[in-house]
Amino acid sequence: MRNVTLILDDGSRFHGKSFGYEKPVAGEVVFNTAMTGYPESLTDPSYAGQLMTLTYPLVGNYGVPPFTFEANGLPTFMESERIHAEAIIVSDYSEMYSHWNAVESLAEWLKREQIPGITGIDTRELTKVLREHGVMMGKIVFDDEPENVPEAQYAGVNYVDKVSCDEIVVYKGNECCKLPADMPKGEINSRLASFNAEGSKRVLLVDCGVKANIIRCLLKRGVEVIRVPWDYDFNGIEFDGLFISNGPGDPDTCDAAVQNIRKAMENEKLPIFGICMGNQLLSKAGGAKIYKLKYGHRSHNQPVRMVGTERCFITSQNHGYAVDNNTLGADWEPLFINMNDGSNEGIRHKRNPWFSAQFHPEAASGPTDTEFLFDEFVKLI
Ligand SMILES: NC(=O)CC[C@H](N)C(=O)O
Known about the structure:
Its EC number is 6.3.5.5. By secondary structure, the chain is α/β, with parallel strands linked by helices.
């Protein structure tokens, strides 16, 4: 195992060993305090551009599930087709693994996908540094190649554009069909009508880097899902509900999506639901502002209170930006508030069927306590 050093932007250094693909890498260093879920987190497109630190010390001991796909093209166990995090940083990589569904080790998977993994890092100390200083950029450098220092930028980069789909994908149960994004809208509507002869309700999903379990959660509720690229102008396509997905990076780089959402809002009866980046883009479409948290929420145990009630839900989260509650327009109100730091965890419109969550009701991984939000959305359609 080659020696590596993680160098943070404030000069802090952490020494460890490489267990994944051997390549120096740079990115935003974030921490996740969940105890499980590395296959789902690594394949969550929202981690693009980030070096993922896990505070739970033992990682790798349940191996990696197979990369199989369902007939509709969705991965069976993963959240997308590949790893999106730039690297994984752990305290104690477990070379032995055991799980009924494991087919390879984490090290084998990382090497196959050319993603660095480093172990022997005091990830709790690293997390304390990030919490004191705030989130930082960092580099993983191989000690025997000190001149080979990677560069990267996170702020202002449109990561959504790198991970969104580039054609239209229509899912219905276990079937799927693909249409080119430049097909005339009239032709798309007639193709959609023949694909959906029984007339199930249709959700148009703006793909900012959608996690597969969001699509599974919608399909499980009997709706058809029309997945379109993040900046696709979907106005003119026939659908019954609008969904805005999670996604990586800075929401302020996604103005094309905000414009399209605003146009869709001209129909006050159209149900709209957003998750994570979707909460941020819906808020922006409603006129609110976004800011960057000192350090993000990434774990399985983020407590959120539903505004107007004493109900608290334990949620799965992965975000670094947040909606500024003070900038919500008069027609909007916070729907959930984070019990740890008081930040916004969702919004709703006071009259129209428009709402969103900053956390992940689809979990994958994490608690499923808030999956009912999908039921609420489908009921509105
Ligand atoms: N998971 C997400 O959709 C994250 C949204 C956004 N990229 C953030 O970090 O806040």
